[in-house]
Write a structure and sequence with these properties.
Blueprint lengths: L2 E7 H10 L1 E2 L3 H6 L2 E2 L1 E2 L3 H8 L6 E7 L7 E5 L5 E5 L3 E2 L3 E7 L14
Antiparallel strand pairs: 1-4, 1-5, 2-8, 3-7, 5-9, 6-7
Protein name: Dihydroorotate dehydrogenase
Organism: Methylocystis iwaonis
Length: 113
Amino acid sequence: MTIIYKIISATEWRAAEAEGLFHGAPIDLADGYIHFSAAEQVEETAAKHFAGKADLLLVSIDADRLGDALKWEVSRGGALFPHLYAPLSLDAVTRVAPLPLGADGRHDFRGLL
């Protein structure tokens, strides 16, 4: 099983749970796909795009369940990032966990990856 990650506000995720599908955060909708990170990328993603933001969740997804709509594409620094060109079905989600913000303003991933 390949696990990929989505960092999202608790409010956005609760709306997805109510609908049963996640169509994407505003940045995803603007770009035309849902942005994810691999385990070795997610901490840098948090630091770059979510620095100092509280009330976030780390959603773990089984990439193997996303089919051909998941593409690994070159992004930041030439690395391949997972992008989903379809809504995320919540049955591919393996875990939803709070992503705590440390006193230093960085998110604490201990025990989450």
